[in-house]
């Protein structure tokens, strides 16, 4: 790790906008994004397809200038100070541009040659568990192994800020876990990680803070727990037999019947569940397949994605103590 002075936020964006095209064909993919990525944290940027995640990351990486607003990366302007930012940043794009004809070792050597202070190739092979594939051509690797080569290149310059665009897409569950370990290890080393992912369990496990982007705007923002708070809990069971109906229960906001299951949403899981169970005991009813869940990131995300978000928040700057 270099000894540059650290800023409180590795990435800060205010009112960030990005428009593709001009005139009547112009399309605004990023519509005023405010983002604070605290130094030393892992922040996950989530969003539906086309929400604007890659468009936002490209501005942060200095690959494109914003059409509005400001962005600072490691305290610098990622476009004007591109060389300085690039030296201190590792970027994993969705698709790497490496030639598949080179071996893994040759690819790492070649990439290392573009960096001012690369870590040794053998260290990177060991870090990404690629030693046994070192002399294999990249085009013969599995998807997971090829992604690990991309990651090795991203991390080879020992970056302070690591930007990962969907690092685990296409990986099997075991490889995904390995990437999670690696990302957590980066934080232990003091690096800051900004990651996009379509896997909500990944974001929930890994991230200190989550930003949900929808149609070019940040619509939810906070720790996974903060994001889920205020969202309804869910109780479901196999539909009651015969003519029995679900009784009126405290806290329930809606009841739905689908594919032989009854699902209740409630603002007070403990009270609703308690009343449901005592009603079932009094009437000697068996609630087959009973499942009770607190709100999860997944339920919030799905609500945002299909426009049912009951609790849209105006994202606020990070407050002291909101960082896990
Ligand atoms: N070069 C481009 N020209 C015009 N429109 C573009 C261009 N690149 C992206 N877009 C549009 O901008 C919007 C945001 O795209 P972006 O790739 O940033 O979304 P994303 O959140 O990364 O999506 P995904 O999860 O599918 O990767 C989309 O509607 C996309 O079609």
UniProtKB/TrEMBL annotation:
Keyword Transport in record: yes
Annotated ranges, domain ABC transporter: 11-240
Localization of this protein: Cell membrane
Chief localisation class: membrane
Coiled coil: none
Key words of the record: Antibiotic resistance, ATP-binding, Nucleotide-binding, Transport
Bilayer topology annotation: Peripheral membrane protein
Statement: the UniProt record of this protein carries the keyword Nucleotide-binding: yes
CDD domains: ABC_DR_subfamily_A (cd03230)
A GO MF term: ATP binding
PANTHER family from the UniProt entry: ABC TRANSPORTER ATP-BINDING PROTEIN
Protein name stated in the entry: ABC transporter ATP-binding protein
Species whose genome carries this gene: Kineosporia corallincola
Highest classification ranks of the organism: Bacteria, Bacillati, Actinomycetota, Actinomycetes, Kineosporiales
């Amino acid at each position: 790790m270099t000894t540059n002075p650290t800023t409180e936020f590795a990435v800060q964006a205010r009112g960030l906008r990005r428009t593709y095209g001009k005139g009547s064909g112009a399309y605004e993919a990023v519509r005023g994004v405010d983002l604070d990525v605290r130094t030393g944290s892992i922040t996950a940027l989530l969003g539906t397809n086309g929400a604007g995640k890659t468009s936002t990351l490209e501005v942060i990486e200095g690959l494109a200038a914003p059409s509005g607003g400001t962005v600072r990366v490691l305290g610098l302007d990622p476009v004007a100070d591109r060389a300085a930012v690039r030296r201190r940043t590792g970027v994993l794009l969705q698709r790497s541009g490496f030639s598949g004809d080179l071996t893994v070792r040759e690819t790492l050597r070649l990439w290392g040659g573009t960096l001012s202070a690369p870590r040794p190739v053998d260290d990177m092979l060991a870090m990404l568990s690629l030693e046994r594939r070192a002399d294999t051509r990249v085009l013969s690797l599995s998807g997971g192994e090829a992604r690990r080569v991309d990651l090795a290149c991203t991390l080879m310059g020992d970056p302070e800020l690591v930007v990962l665009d969907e690092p685990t897409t296409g990986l099997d569950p075991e490889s995904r876990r390995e990437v999670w370990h690696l990302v957590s290890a980066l934080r232990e080393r003091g690096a800051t990680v900004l990651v996009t992912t379509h896997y909500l369990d990944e974001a929930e496990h890994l991230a200190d803070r989550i930003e949900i982007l929808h149609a070019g705007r940040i619509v939810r923002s906070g720790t996974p727990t903060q994001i889920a708070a205020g969202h309804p809990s869910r109780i479901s069971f196999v539909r009651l037999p015969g003519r029995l109906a679900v009784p009126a229960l405290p806290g329930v906001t809606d009841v739905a019947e689908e594919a032989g299951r009854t699902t209740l949403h409630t603002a007070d899981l403990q009270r609703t569940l308690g009343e449901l169970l005592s009603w079932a005991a009094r009437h000697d009813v068996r609630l087959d397949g009973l499942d009770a869940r607190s709100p999860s990131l997944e339920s919030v995300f799905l609500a945002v994605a299909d426009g049912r978000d009951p609790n849209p928040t105006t994202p606020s700057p990070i407050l002291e103590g909101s960082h896990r």
